[in-house]
Design brief:
The complex is a heterodimer of chains A (325) and B (279). In chain A, helix 4 packs across helix 14 and helix 13 packs antiparallel against helix 14. In chain A, strands 2-3 form a two-stranded antiparallel sheet. Chain A starts with a helix and ends with a helix. With 325 residues, chain A is mostly helical. The radius of gyration of chain A is 24 Å and the shape is flat. Chain B has 279 residues and is an all-alpha fold. Chain B has two domains: 36 residues, no CATH class; 218 residues, Orthogonal Bundle (MetI-like fold), CATH 1.10.3720.10. Chain B has 13 helices and one strand. Chain B starts with a helix and ends with a helix. The chains are: A mainly alpha (325), B mainly alpha (279). At the A-B interface, strand 1, helix 3, helix 6, helix 7 and helix 8 of A face helix 1, helix 4, strand 1, helix 5 and helix 6 of B. Strand 1 of chain A pairs parallel with strand 1 of chain B, so a sheet runs across the interface.
Chain lengths: 325, 279
């Protein structure tokens, strides 16, 4: 999975190459010492929020995952590990996991690649650049739920604008059932996923590009480097931290993304196009059983899955080295 | 050589044209949405689809703004997003500053905790969140939503701000220290003005995340008038009534404040991402 996602990063793996262009490292800030009491004073509110609203629900989730619930949500007693075995035994689990993998890898990889190009463009000087930058922001500013509903309409077999346009320019003879045809639904959802992930990612890269000092480029040009060599040998390596940050954050966001899949997949029964996140939600609130315990177990699997995925990615891309170098 | 020369000549004209194409690529779905807001709801779901409205309807926006429910949802969204943003900034700034400047027992553990929280999403924890607020009898209250949004956006804010504070050399603060300023005063007078882009970044990210949060609001907010916009406007199109025009009109109104906010602070935002996330 990391194969595609980390391709541009891996390309910069050669640490000896471009460091000549780096700015002199700023003096490392010295840190004063402080007591635990002082620390609690400064960190107290943050700890309170984190333990109160993130850690405590996580504990509640663990407890719920070990309990048996009635269909109305009343606790009926201990379930041991039944909920876990039930989730693992769910015949849709394999499909759901495959969907999740395809969804996350495809959306993150495409987002990173397109955003790299877009960020290059957005950092060039040209007339109207500010307006283009505002336009790029819109899919990020719009609520995901609304964008998802909008696309469920645009993709519609009967009254969708997309089919209307495709028919008009003669690309297809009959409308495509984007959200009903098994071959089309995943690509259709991925397209929306990429669309809404680009703005944030492109901005991380724009910021990264702005941070590269221009004299580095001038030096390379004087040395006779071609534009491609400059990009490959200077821009990309210096952009590496930004690519790492953007990839990790996107992995987390895309993995946890709920509205797109939930909305675009609404008309299809079962779990055949669900990812682990919508799978879990449907178990708790929409399936025939309305099983809170199973859903909690599935939720814990989700947290573990993304943790493992991020750790693997960071290992493969040698995050620590970057941090410490 | 010839190629570069001619590109140089057409570049001033070509770049804005490409820019227009790029802008269109990101705006077209929302242009479809705008057109859909200007036609009667029945026209939206008519076969065959027409790109322009068959019949123009200009009253959608006044209908939406005049709708009491819409104003209630807008109010919830504003209260929740603004309050969670204020809380995040007030809580994240001291935490990030302190961990960047001081060594103390548990510092690494704290930073690790923050990193882990970044991976938790309210969606995975929604069952646990519901049970907690149910036990606290806070289901269907603003407080529950504000606390959730604040808590889950805290990690990103601390992460970004920590990078900022750490990148400013200690010497900058030392002069103030010699003048007898305590850490709180140094933070306010010296550090915050220098890290303004980071503050702006944390603010805008939290605001957007809270403004667009869906799953927790869907689960926790039961009474119609307390729902935020993301959840509320869905009742314009249900199995019983289908007001696509109003759904999309309301959605466009919901986008506008965020885009304006962006336009105003865009410069800071770009600087912010640089120093914070890239260090």
């Amino acid at each position: 999975m990391t194969q595609t996602a980390s391709a541009p990063v891996g390309a910069t793996g050669d640490p000896a190459a471009p460091t000549a262009g780096r700015r002199p490292r700023r003096a490392r800030p010295r840190r004063g010492r402080a007591s635990l009491g002082q620390a609690l004073l400064w960190l107290g509110p943050a700890l309170l929020l984190i333990f109160g609203v993130v850690v405590y629900p996580a504990v509640e989730l663990v407890k719920a995952s070990l309990s048996r619930y009635s269909i109305t949500g009343l606790r009926k007693g201990d379930a041991g590990l039944d909920n876990y075995t039930n989730v693992l035994a769910n015949e849709s689990l394999g499909t759901v996991l495959t969907n999740t993998l395809v969804w996350v890898v495809a959306v993150v990889a495409l987002t990173i690649l397109i955003s790299l190009g877009l960020a290059q463009f957005l950092t060039k000087e040209f007339w109207g650049r500010r307006i283009v930058r505002w336009a790029v922001i819109v899919p990020w500013a719009a609520s995901l739920v609304i964008t998802a509903r909008l696309f469920s309409l645009i993709y519609s077999y009967y009254y969708g604008t997309l089919n209307a346009v495709l028919l008009k320019i003669g690309l297809v003879d009959t409308p495509i059932d984007f959200l009903g045809d098994d071959r089309w639904i995943m690509p259709s959802m991925i397209a929306v996923g990429v669309f809404v992930s680009i703005p944030f990612t492109a901005y991380v890269f724009v910021a990264g590009l702005h941070a590269i000092p221009t004299d580095v480029y001038e030096a390379a040009r004087i040395d006779g480097a071609s534009p491609w060599q400059i990009w490959r040998r200077i821009t990309l390596p210096l952009l590496r931290p930004a690519i790492l940050v953007a990839t990790v954050l996107n992995m987390i966001y895309v993995f946890n993304s709920f509205p797109i899949i939930y909305t675009l997949n609404e008309s299809n029964p079962g779990f055949s196009h669900d990812t682990t996140i919508t799978f879990m939600y449907k178990l708790a609130f929409k399936s025939a059983e309305k099983d809170v315990g199973q859903s909690a177990a599935a939720g814990l699997f989700n947290v573990l899955l993304i943790l493992v995925a991020v750790v693997i990615y960071l290992r493969v891309s040698r995050w620590r080295e970057e941090e410490e170098s | 050589m010839n190629g570069t020369l001619s590109w140089r000549r057409i570049r001033p004209a070509a770049m804005p044209v490409i820019g227009l194409g790029v802008a269109f690529a990101f705006l077209w779905p929302y242009l479809v949405m705008l057109l859909d807001a200007f036609r009667p709801s029945g026209d939206v779901v008519q076969t065959p689809a027409s790109i322009l409205p068959r019949e123009w309807k200009w009253t959608t926006f006044s209908e939406v703004v005049g709708d009491e429910r819409f104003r209630a949802w807008l109010q919830t969204s504003l209260i929740v997003a603004l309050s969670s943003t204020v809380i995040v900034v007030l809580v994240a700034v001291p935490a990030a500053y302190f961990t960047a400047r001081f060594r103390f027992p548990g510092r690494i553990a704290f930073l690790f905790l923050v990193l882990i929280t970044q991976m938790f999403s309210p969606t995975s924890l929604v069952v646990g969140i519901y049970r907690e607020f149910y036990a606290l009898t806070l289901v269907d209250t603003y407080q529950a939503l504000i606390l959730t949004n604040a808590a889950f956006n805290l990690a990103f804010a601390i992460w970004i701000l920590h990078g900022f504070f750490a990148s400013i050399p200690k010497e900058v603060e030392e002069a103030a220290e010699l003048d007898g300023c305590g850490p709180l005063l140094r933070l306010r007078r010296v550090m915050l003005p220098l890290t303004l882009p980071g503050l702006v970044t944390a603010t805008i990210f939290t605001f957007i995340a809270a403004w667009n949060e869906y799953v927790v609001a869907l689960t926790l907010m039961l009474s119609d008038e307390k729902k935020p916009l993301t959840v509320g406007i869905n009742s314009y199109v249900t199995g019983y009534e289908q007001n696509w025009d109003q759904l999309f009109g309301a959605s466009i109104i919901a986008i506008v404040p965020v885009v304006i906010l962006f336009a105003v602070i865009e410069k800071h935002l770009v600087g912010g991402l640089t120093a914070g996330s890239v260090k």
